[in-house]
Write a structure and sequence with these properties.
Layout (H helix, E strand, L loop, with lengths): L7 E7 L5 H10 L13 E3 L10 E5 L7 H10 L2 E7 L3 H19 L7 E6 L9 H10 L3 E6 L8 H13 L6 E2 L4 E2 L1 H14 L6 E2 L1 H12 L5 H14 L4 E2 L1 E3 H13 L3 H10 L10 H4 L11 E3 L1 H14 L6 E2 L1 H7 L24 E2 H14 L1 H11 L1 H4 L7 E3 L3 H7 L6 E8 L5 H7 L5 H4 L10 E8 L2 E9 L10 H4 L3 E7 L6 H12 L6 E6 L14 H7 L6 E2 L9 H11 L13 H4 L1 H19 L7
Parallel strand pairs: 1-3, 1-4, 4-5, 5-6, 16-18, 16-19, 19-20, 20-21
Antiparallel strand pairs: 2-3, 7-8, 9-11, 10-11, 12-15, 13-14, 17-18
Helix pairs in contact: 9-10, 12-13, 14-15
């Protein structure tokens, strides 16, 4: 939940006769009341008449009129506590440290985060200021935000008292600044560093004038005047070594926010922090990280054109050597604005990489496509960490929810660009090699891989009649194959793999088909792996070809990958997923799907054009 304050509750406490009630009455009536009750009734000020535009409740406490248990309850409910003292009563000043501030800690805890304002009333009765005697108190009690001297009789600084009380709640000092060290807190430095990296669009460790003005527009809805920008740089140069290098460096950026707070302009820093999703405890809010998106049964989630464009820009930003691949260091830098690295070593065997295992642009986009399909909420969360919201209103513009698959079948066309394929087969039939083959890796290369880093998923683009589609292969665990629920079984196409050299391997494929797929509308392809070897007779009542013929399946697709990967099988799987309504069309011959290619190509091109027009989504840059 967000900890943004939706309203402010101000509690006034202090010794008797210091003028707590008079302060409230003077604020409300704008004149001094000669006759004052023991306690003012609770007052609510509407948002439209307060400086910070939040509803504000002002609560008076009177020891004469109320019991101590009521005081403790009010202290716990208060957003900010004003301790009122009289500037002409030395006892009331002494009791700030001997009674009131310790009592607050006793009630709320030594480490409580409720801000405190010290309010010196009755300045009209003396020419002597008490602020010098109050400063040591502020140093000893970090919860004290500020001190304001005022007069209920002359109305001097009355509105300022309640303005600073509001400000202490909405723009608190404690989370962002350490007054003892006179510097930003570690949490504030971390948050502002993330913000700097997001705003440094070209990754040169400097905010250029153009980047600063974009930052100003996003956070404050107005650019800086060129002279004002030069004045800001001049201040940074005078105070910070290496704070300016043409533009403002991270060191200079942190200095400016330190200066804002020291000058009492907390709202400037807090406006920036809240624009980038931070709450009062400098945690990213749930609303910022995880906006709600409904995905109906039968629908899937894909990235939109806006999503892909953002990710391509991010890749280009961190591909420092411009080689089209992300080295481990470049990948770490890309995710430096995230709390943890979201991708483990298995990602190198899930998507396309170079010979060193560095992820290519295609592989990087494919991994994001995979995450969006399998774990939409995680994709949305990490888009927020990476700064998508800085350039767009919400991460939801990066996500497209596809229509229910049932509608696709009824309308005999699909707008989906990502297809999920379950791969099932008995032990040692070559499923791992089949998955890696999608990444154009042959068996000799697969033999060199660390099996501990292998993934149960691979994903790559496959052309279906001139259109790039993503095909995701998922190797279903052998034990899970026997007990899949309808939800777990859901996919766009199924692939049942047997080993032509193992006479007992086809029986598993036949059993899985009869158990899971015979009565459903999921297209199914049987793949004969290790096809470079002579095929032995299977210990099953029907040969694989006879089985396929009986159940109107395409003939077994032969697959080999010792040296060159037979990529046709992946094209066929993607085509079957794209056109599930013509499930029986591919039955007669392995080449039948080529014979209908012209008609389907026209339909595909037309359907894809319509999809782009309706959904403003396009195939990502390759």
């Amino acid at each position: 939940m967000s900890s943004y304050k939706r309203d402010v509750r101000i509690l006034l406490v202090g010794d008797e006769k210091v003028g707590k009630t008079s302060l409230i009455l003077s604020l409300v009536s704008e004149e001094f009341a000669e006759e004052v009750p023991a306690r003012a009734e609770e007052i609510t000020i509407p948002a439209d008449v307060t400086p910070e535009h939040v509803p504000t409740c002002i609560v008076d406490y009177s020891a004469q009129d109320q019991e101590e248990i009521v005081l403790q309850e009010e202290l716990r409910k208060a957003s900010v506590i004003c301790i009122v003292y009289s500037v002409v009563d030395e006892d009331s000043i002494q009791r700030l440290t001997s009674y009131w501030l310790p009592y607050l800690r006793y009630t709320l805890g030594d480490d409580h985060r409720t801000p405190v304002i010290l309010v010196g009333n009755k300045v009209d009765l003396t020419d002597i200021q008490t602020l010098e005697s109050i400063l040591p108190i502020m140093n000893d009690f970090g919860e004290v935000e500020t001190c304001v001297e005022c007069s209920a009789r002359t109305l001097k600084n009355i509105s300022e008292v309640f303005y600073y009380a509001q400000k202490a709640v909405l723009h608190p000092t404690a989370p962002v600044y350490n007054p003892d060290e006179k510097e930003l807190t570690p949490q504030a430095k971390k948050a502002l560093t993330r913000i700097f990296r997001i705003c440094d669009l070209d990754n040169d460790n400097v905010l250029s004038d153009e980047e600063i003005n974009l930052f100003q527009m996003k956070c404050f809805n107005s650019p800086l005047h060129p002279q004002a920008l030069e004045d800001v740089k001049s201040i940074v140069r005078k105070n910070v070594t290496d704070g300016v290098n043409d533009g403002i460096t991270l060191k200079g950026f942190l200095f400016l926010h330190t200066l804002f707070i020291q000058k009492g302009r907390h709202e400037t820093t807090w406006s920036v922090l809240r624009k980038f999703g931070y709450d009062d405890n400098l945690q990213l809010t749930t609303e910022y990280l995880s906006p709600k998106l409904f995905v109906g049964l039968g629908s899937t989630t894909e990235l939109t054109a806006e999503g892909y464009q953002f990710l391509v820009r991010l890749f280009d930003k961190y591909d420092e050597d411009r080689d089209g691949f992300l080295s481990p260091t470049e990948l770490q830098n890309l995710f430096s604005t995230c709390p943890i690295m979201p991708w483990g070593p298995d990602v190198n065997n899930t998507v396309c990489t170079n010979a060193d295992g560095w992820i290519s642009l295609n592989g990087y986009l494919a991994q994001w496509t995979l995450t969006t399909l399998l774990d939409m909420n995680r994709a949305i969360e990490y888009l927020a960490y990476l700064g998508f919201n800085y350039q767009q209103e919400s991460q939801l513009t990066a996500i497209h929810v596809t229509r229910d698959k049932k509608i696709d079948l009824e309308k005999r066309q699909t707008g989906r660009n990502v297809f999920r394929c379950h791969v099932m087969g008995a032990k040692s039939v070559g499923k791992t090699a089949f998955l890696q083959g999608l990444l154009q890796r042959n068996l000799r290369y697969v033999a060199t891989l660390n099996r501990q880093n292998l993934s149960n998923f691979t994903i790559n683009t496959v052309q279906v009649y001139g259109q790039d589609k993503y095909l995701m292969l998922h190797e279903v665990d052998l034990v899970m194959c026997e007990m899949l629920t309808p939800t777990e079984l859901d996919c766009d196409v199924a692939c049942l793999v047997y080993d032509v050299t193992n006479p007992q391997s086809f029986e598993f494929c036949a059993r899985m088909y009869l158990k899971h797929f015979i009565d459903c509308k999921i297209p199914t392809l049987i793949v004969a792996s290790k096809a470079e070897y002579p095929e032995v007779r299977q210990d099953y009542e029907l040969t694989p070809a006879q089985f396929c013929s009986r159940f109107k399946l395409p003939p077994p697709q032969r697959f080999t990958c010792i040296d060159k990967v037979n990529h046709d099988v992946y094209i066929k799987l993607a085509t079957m997923a794209a056109y599930p309504h013509i499930k029986g069309l591919f039955q007669s011959s392995p080449n039948t799907y080529l014979q209908v290619g012209i008609g389907l190509a026209v339909a595909a091109a037309l359907g894809f054009a319509i999809y782009k027009f309706v959904h403003t989504s396009s195939t990502p840059r390759r």
